[in-house]
């Protein structure tokens, strides 16, 4: 699909991120599209139940689909550079009001390139460096070990300058398709349960994965935003809702595993 110059000049960052006002996200392609690895068990080609694919298909998400199509046809280096310019402005706006920008997330939809060029990686690093210099937590979910290694290497030496993760290094978070077979190695995430799972089963499976991780010396967190969501905690349960953006576990390199009950 071809896009006009006016379309390509539109903002690349979005706000569909973390449920926290002031957050931003960058998606480079459609879910199940150009950058998503077919090795992912959630990929449509594998019959997976990717939540992002379902979200993009909704009639009220037509604008998101158009934007993702536009990004998918644009070179990643250009998207990263444009995103950095926009992020500089967003951080400055927050600081002007004495506020901390709460989150920056990659790939709320789709993924990052599996074979990035050196120029892609350099622009990616500059974007992450801008976020970490402003103390903004970065959530970088990736679906293959190869991608996690490439983008982690590209961020080598960067550290958060302030914010809730001050002094720590940003980390990619690898999506696991099965229970970790060996020792804890890289920060990861995992979905517990499957499409059609009852909520009790999904929660039990999530706690079992977390227990397994801790038994291997890791630090595991079952996503509090999912556990306290309406699907898993009714009004009568008296549970205080936790917004995704109210927790920094996804960006914390000290947390070895985030478990999401299937939702």
Description:
The chain is α/β, with parallel strands linked by helices. The protein folds into two domains: 1-175, no CATH class; 178-263, no CATH class. The protein has eight helices and seven strands. The chain has a seven-stranded parallel β-sheet with strand order 1-2-3-4-5-7-6. α4 packs parallel to α5. It is globular and about 45 Å long. The protein starts with a helix and ends with a strand. The relative contact order is 0.13. Residues 1-7 have low confidence and may be disordered.
Please give the structural blueprint:
Elements: H1 5-8, E1 24-26, H2 51-57, H3 62-72, H4 76-96, E2 104-106, H5 118-133, E3 138-142, H6 145-154, E4 172-176, E5 188-192, H7 199-215, E6 220-222, H8 224-227, E7 257-261
Parallel strand pairs: 1-2, 2-3, 3-4, 4-5, 5-7, 6-7
Number of domains: 2
Q: Helical amount among residues, as a percent range? A: 25-40%
SSE order: HEHHHEHEHEEHEHE
Question: How many strand segments?
Answer: 7
Span of the ends, CA to CA: 33 Å
Q: What is this structure, in a nutshell?
A:
By secondary structure, this protein is an alpha/beta fold. The chain contains eight helices and seven strands.
């Amino acid at each position: 699909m071809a896009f006009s110059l006016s379309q390509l000049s539109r903002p690349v960052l979005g706000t569909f991120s973390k449920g926290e006002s002031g957050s931003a996200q960058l998606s480079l392609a459609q879910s199940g599209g150009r950058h998503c690895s077919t090795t992912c068990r959630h990929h449509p080609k594998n019959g997976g139940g990717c939540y992002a694919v379902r979200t993009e298909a909704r009639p009220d998400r037509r604008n998101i689909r158009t934007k993702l199509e536009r990004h998918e046809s644009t070179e990643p280096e250009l998207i990263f550079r444009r995103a950095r310019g926009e992020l500089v402005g967003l951080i400055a706006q927050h600081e002007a009001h004495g506020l901390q920008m709460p989150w920056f997330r990659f790939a709320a939809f789709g993924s990052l390139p599996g074979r990035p060029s050196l120029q892609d990686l350099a622009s990616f690093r500059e974007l992450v460096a801008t976020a970490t210099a402003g103390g903004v937590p970065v959530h970088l979910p990736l679906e293959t070990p190869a991608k996690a290694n490439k983008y982690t290497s590209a961020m080598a030496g960067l550290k958060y300058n302030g914010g809730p993760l001050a002094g720590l290094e940003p980390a990619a978070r690898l999506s696991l398709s099965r229970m970790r077979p060996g020792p804890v190695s890289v920060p990861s995430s995992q979905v517990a349960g499957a499409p059609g799972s009852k909520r009790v089963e999904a929660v039990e499976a999530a706690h079992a994965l977390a227990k397994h991780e801790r038994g291997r010396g890791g630090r595991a967190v079952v996503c509090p935003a999912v556990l306290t969501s309406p699907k898993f905690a009714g009004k009568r349960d008296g549970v205080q809702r936790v917004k995704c953006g109210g927790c920094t576990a996804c960006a914390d390199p000290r947390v070895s595993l985030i478990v999401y009950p299937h939702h």
